[in-house]
Amino acid sequence: MTAVRRPRTGSRGRHRPWPLCRRCSGLALDMGSDRTRAWIAGRPTILDVPSVTFPGTGALHPIRRGAIVDVPGTARMLDRLLGHRLPRQPRPLVVVTTPVLGGPTYRDRARAAVQVLRPRAVLTVPTARAVALGADADLTRPLLVVDIGAHLTEVVLLVDGAVFDARRTAWGTTDLTCADARADLCEAVTAMITSMLRQDHTARTADALGRGPLLAGGGALRPDLVARLGAGLHAPLRAVAAPHTAALRGAAKILRAAHAHPSTRGTAPPGPAPCPH
Hints:
By secondary structure, the protein is α/β, with parallel strands linked by helices. It has 2 domains: 2-130 and 244-264, ATPase, nucleotide binding domain (Nucleotidyltransferase, domain 5), CATH 3.30.420; 139-239, ATPase, nucleotide binding domain (Nucleotidyltransferase, domain 5, 2-Layer Sandwich), CATH 3.30.420.40. The chain has helices spanning 71-82, 103-114, 127-134, 179-199, 204-211, 223-233, 246-260; strands at 2-5, 26-31, 35-40, 45-50, 63-64, 67-68, 93-98, 121-126, 143-148, 153-159, 162-169, 214-216, 238-239. The strands form 3 sheets. The protein has a 6-stranded mixed beta sheet with strand order 1-4-3-2-7-8, sandwiched between helices. Strands 11-10-9-12-13 form a 5-stranded mixed beta sheet, sandwiched between helices. A two-stranded antiparallel ribbon has the order 5-6. The protein is globular and about 50 Å long. The chain starts with a strand and ends in a 17-residue tail after the last helix. Mean pLDDT is 84; it is low at 1-22 and 264-277.
């Protein structure tokens, strides 16, 4: 397990500070096929571990290619990682990122697995929206998010912060074993965006592409991939700072906002929100 300390805010803009709120009880969670990352409200570190479980017969991967294939295994993984770290009272509010095209099946399985943590509520957020929030992106205009993970790549068009269109391919950075594989992944991303352009009878996709897609996930840390993808799209790419934790940062922001909402407190807050910016 890797504990990542909160980075200093003056590190040339490559990182973002984590929100601290000692009065909040909650958890932001980003479960990927390769890594699972979690942040507990009020703590200056994130937890970053392989997405594996150990049922007694060796290591198994309960999440594959952006799908939860083993709900009990995912629950065991979360319990091993977080069960002893969360306070028993109050019960935590949990915000979970979910692949845009994972659909109700992924969301239902994620909620079922998280029950091992005894949450008082579970909120799900599309990973692309979480990435945009974590990157402090301007959501008043259409935005293309290209999230290249270890085993899954999603291309999502956000309009007013909501999912307008999305595509995915079961390719990721772990598949990039040669130059041909990198070319294939870049061609797949280009094809997905081209398809979105052709099917969009508005100017939203073209506007977002002209502004430059937001690049996140481990793929954003691959200069060779970024250069090839930019050349194929004929558009500027905007790599997210600390792209591997962008979705988790966005989930943390939603957690903070949820704690400030009157519905989670029982009454309207009489003064400033409990989790200031």
